[in-house]
Design goal:
Elements lengths: L2 E6 L10 E5 L4 E5 L1 E2 L3 H4 L12 E2 L18
Antiparallel strand pairs: 1-2, 2-3, 4-5
């Protein structure tokens, strides 16, 4: 398995997250983002199973995501 760094938010302090990775074994994407700390209000209408989580990232990061379709990663 190899994780491939696809993009980082260039506006994040210290060049940290959010960051997008691609896992070439599972063929899934991993998103490192900000923990949602006010879950009692913002996530109150979402059912989140124990094995899942919600992360937040800024919309400006979407333009850095790779295009989907016609690549070896789809």
């Amino acid at each position: 398995m190899a994780l491939h760094l696809l993009c980082k938010d260039p506006e994040s302090p210290n060049n940290g997250s959010p960051t997008l990775y691609y896992d070439d074994e599972s063929r899934n994407y991993l998103l490192q983002g900000w923990r949602v700390t006010d879950s009692a209000t913002r996530l109150s209408d979402i059912v989140i199973p124990e094995h899942e989580t919600i992360v937040e990232f800024p919309s400006r990061l979407l333009r850095l995501f790779p295009a989907v379709g016609g690549t070896s990663q789809d």
